Structure formats: C-alpha cells, structure tokens
Amino acid sequence: MLVRPTCLLIWCHGMNNKILRVSRDPVPNLNIGLLELDMDEKSEAVFVMDRTTGKTLGYALRPPSGIYKLVLDVRFTADPLLLVGILDNDLQYNAAVADGVKLQLVDGNTVNLSQ
C-alpha cells in the first residue's frame, strides 16, 4: 500500500504562523526557502539570524550526517537578509559567520529534509 506524506500549507507573516490546509496531495506552488549547510567536522553548532531584526531563526547542534537543513519563509530567497554562523562549544576555534545569505528557492512538495 502506497501512502503519500501529508503536506502542510503554512502561511508565515512575522510571528503569525497559521496552518491553512492539511492535504495528502501535493500542494500547487508550494515554494519555500531552504538553507542546506555542509558543516565542518570541527563545528558543533549552527545558528541562523535575520540580520534586519536580530531574531534567531534557527539553532541546532551538528547533525550526525553533518548536513544541516532549515526551511524558512520564501522572502529569504529574494534578498540577502540572513546571518549564518558555525560554532564550536569548546571555544577552541573562532566562530565563522557568513553575512548576506540568500536561501535557495525549492518546491516544498519535493524537498528532502532528512539530515
């Protein structure tokens, strides 16, 4: 028996996130912004910030695969509004931060978020 994953269509505007529809069928025009970061073995954590507000949009420890993925609002695909940094928790190395990061525009129905 073939089971399709459930798709969520989420409307994002500031801090007001609302689930509009839950569907087992693909949602047309479900464009999302995807950050896919291949983390160095010596990095232990990653953070993502909105550079216009200073709000932390994501923070995570390094996944076992070393590939960190984060889905954000599609507006981050048009303008370079993100700061992305990697850290080590031992304070042995300096943090590395990339400023002005734009996300890749992907189809939310086909994106693979496995880490």
How would you spell out the order of helices and strands? EEEEEEEEE
Radius of gyration: 16 Å
> What strand line-up does the widest sheet have?
5-4-7-8
Mean pLDDT: 80
Helix percent band:
under 10%
Give the overall shape, derived from the CA principal axes. globular
Query: What class, by secondary structure content?
Result: mainly beta
Instruction: Catalogue the unreliable spans.
Output: 1-16
Tally of extended strands? 9
Strand proportion, as a percent range, falls in over 45%
Count of helical segments? Answer: 0
Termini gap: 26 Å
Largest sheet: 4 strands, antiparallel
Keywords:
115 residues; globular; 4-stranded antiparallel beta sheet; 3-stranded antiparallel beta sheet; mainly beta
Structure description:
0% of the residues lie in helices and 50% in strands. The chain has no helices and nine strands. Strands 5-4-7-8 form a four-stranded antiparallel β-sheet, with no helix packed on it. The model is unreliable at 1-16 (pLDDT under 50).
